[in-house]
Amino acid sequence: MLWNNLQQTVELGWDFYLPVLLFVGLIAMAVPVWASIGSAAILMLIMSGDLPLSLVGESLFSGIDAFALTAVPLFILTGDVLVRTGLSRKFLNVAEALTCWAKGGFGSATVLVCGMFAAISGSDAAGAAAVGRMTIDRLVESGYPRPYACALVAAGACTGILIPPSIAYIIIGLVLGISASTLFLAALIPGLAILISILVTNIVMNRIYAYEGGGLMSFGEWFANLRRALASGWYAFIVPGIIFYGIFSGRLTPTEAGATAVVVTIIMGFILGTLKLADFPAMLVSSAKVNGIILPIIAFSAPLAEALAIMGVPQGFVTAVTSLTDDPYVLILLMIGILIAAGCVMETTPNIVILAPILKPLADNIGMNEIQFCIMMITALGVGFITPPLGLNLFVVSGITGESILKIAARAVPFVFFMLMVVLLIAYVPAISTTLLPDIYK
């Protein structure tokens, strides 16, 4: 019914169907996403004749000619430096000291350190790899089954794009013309809500299956452990402190905060003696590989977005959907369903650049705050990091441990359920996303 309405509204022809089939076919053959998007966009432009091909090159460069995008490689590099300097282990020590008083403490510490890493790198995969290498073996030693330990790390690492600063919010801000700093501020409560949902899920699972042993610790012992951990690792929190204070105080843009974080982390590595000049080539290459995946997708999505806009697909989608129902609650559920399904089969960046311009008019039509829409979209897509068949975090922890992806995915089901509950809260309770914002954005 929806597809029929869309066809009638936009009058879709082979200039739409053939590029879509090409895109799906290339993705199925494991062709890189940027090449698949670019090929589909060029074919669509050739068949429709809506935009001269001579302008495609200009469109590619204008798509990434944005100062805000400079923050992406800077935050990625900060995460790499953080791991190589050993500062990430200081986060783990403090997180463990915070949670060691209760049964299931190391599982909770693992989730917390995922959140701490997310507050610096803004990347899910980087967090899953870094935290997984530090914690999975210790989780197994503590009594957790290996598939569950992998699922716990994969779920915790989902906060990489949900807790600011986040690369995903920089990208959606660029696509929709919204300040990244504003989105960071709005994402703080939702990101923490996701983190808490993962913590609570692990505590509940621990209660049911008694994975992790250990008894309650006295306040004196807990305080002594925490004091020792902070005394030996307090300086690691200088980096996230700079990022958060700089961005949320308005003194630094996200790009400036990322640059400052890189410099400070490098200086700390030299002072501690854990970083050498010989480490730089490997760090830069590692960061460049990640950045080389993200930016071409953004660049090649620009001509595709222009072609879809000229063909009237976003407006036609709104008309087609609202012809079925005008109930905002149902329409929100439909958007969440689309985002969850898209997150299961494609990475966050192409989903943002393709779906955001199509779904935002629908959100505007039902009166949803644009900031709330962005938070809902990124959070829903974030769930896709632990859902098959793509589930990037599942592949990362599977690659580290050799554990079956299907076994990890099965153990991740409770985390997915509680994360979806938070997505629904974000979608239906605007205050979760707008409470911290100035009145002009509410």
UniProtKB/TrEMBL annotation:
> Where does the UniProt annotation locate this protein?
Cell inner membrane
- Determine if NAD is one of this entry's keywords: no
Q: In terms of one coarse class, where is the protein primarily found?
A: membrane
Q: Which residues form the signal peptide?
A: none
Pfam families named among the record's database cross-references: DctM (PF06808)
Q: Which UniProt keywords apply?
A: Cell inner membrane, Cell membrane, Membrane, Transmembrane, Transmembrane helix, Transport
What's the protein's topology in the membrane? Multi-pass membrane protein
Q: Where are the transmembrane segments?
A: 20-46, 66-83, 148-178, 184-205, 226-247, 259-278, 290-311, 331-359, 371-392, 412-437
Q: Note the InterPro entries from the entry.
A: DctM, TRAP_DctM
Q: Please state every residue range assigned to the domain named TRAP C4-dicarboxylate transport system permease DctM subunit.
A: 21-432
How is the subunit organization of this protein annotated in UniProt? The complex comprises the extracytoplasmic solute receptor protein and the two transmembrane proteins.
Per the record, the similarity remark reads:
Belongs to the TRAP transporter large permease family.
What's this protein's function? Part of the tripartite ATP-independent periplasmic (TRAP) transport system.
The name under which this protein is listed is TRAP transporter large permease protein
Lineage of the source organism?
Answer: Bacteria, Pseudomonadati, Pseudomonadota, Alphaproteobacteria, Rhodobacterales
